Backbone:
């Protein structure tokens, strides 16, 4: 594992850059100060750039989110989301055995209807549900879902999760709960969960097909559990950003908060997740 100061240090080593969205390019607000410059740098060097996002929405929603953040559409080839992955599997008939009556855990923002329509589902209560669609987190904590999870487990219901992230960064720098935390709790109970997005190998296969293949790819992200584990599973290089969701954990491991985070500190935290990034950096930047 090697620390780099910017992508200029590795620009000639890779033909393809697979970028996480939240924590790398933005946190739901404006693009990070160096993000647009770095995307332009990759474009100037003729690199394939795809954004692989654990978002329950489709790539179309991500296009708008990125544009709103200040990132123009011509700076990347495409976006692939965990929501796209899930919709693909529904459309391919993978979940036909689950039926079409879903207990929906959503964001409560009016987008749930598109998920149901895209997957051919009907939203019902827990007693009438044939499975759980875990798309968002409207309630404040996992504990507030426990009663439904207990009933679902007793009935032997399976869960489909469209966003496996446990938490995500907010524009204010805090962390917000994500659907993966609910799905993880259900899995720990013994419930069967169908995961989508990173770190599933299938989504990297979809990404490779979308790009028409690659020779030397590197995945860039701030989540050891999803971005780095996914890269390890896919057999590609990875670049871990230390300023993302693990920033507090890393800072707790250094003696002085102003110290440069050493490779040994990143390695210690990586071992806790049983993953290994090939490179690490603070921010997504050129130099």
Residues:
């Amino acid at each position: 594992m090697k620390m780099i100061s910017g992508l200029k240090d590795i620009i000639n080593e890779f033909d393809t850059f697979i970028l996480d969205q939240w924590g790398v390019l933005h946190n739901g607000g404006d693009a990070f100060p160096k993000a647009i410059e770095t995307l332009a740098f990759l474009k100037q060097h003729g690199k394939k750039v795809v954004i692989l996002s654990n978002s329950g929405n489709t790539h179309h929603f991500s296009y708008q989110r990125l544009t709103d953040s200040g990132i123009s559409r011509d700076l990347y080839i495409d976006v692939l989301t965990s929501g796209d992955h899930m919709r693909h599997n529904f459309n391919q008939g993978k979940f036909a055995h689950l039926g079409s009556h879903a207990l929906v855990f959503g964001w409560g923002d009016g987008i749930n209807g598109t998920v149901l329509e895209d997957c051919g589902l009907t939203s019902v209560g827990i007693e009438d549900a044939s499975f759980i669609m875990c798309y968002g987190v409207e309630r404040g904590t996992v504990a507030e879902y426990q009663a439904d999870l207990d009933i679902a487990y007793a009935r032997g219901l399976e869960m489909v999760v469209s966003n496996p992230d446990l938490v995500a960064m907010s524009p204010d720098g805090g962390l917000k709960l994500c659907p993966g935390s609910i799905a993880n709790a259900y899995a720990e109970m013994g419930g069967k969960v169908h995961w989508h997005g990173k770190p599933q190998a299938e989504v990297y296969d979809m990404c490779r097909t979308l790009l028409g293949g690659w020779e030397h790819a590197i995945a860039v992200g701030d989540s050891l559990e999803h971005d780095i584990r996914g890269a390890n599973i896919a057999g590609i290089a990875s670049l871990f950003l230390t300023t993302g969701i693990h920033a507090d954990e890393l800072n707790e491991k250094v003696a002085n908060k102003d110290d440069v985070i050493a490779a040994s500190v990143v390695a210690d935290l990586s071992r806790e997740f049983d993953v290994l990034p090939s490179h690490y950096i603070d921010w997504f930047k050129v130099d």
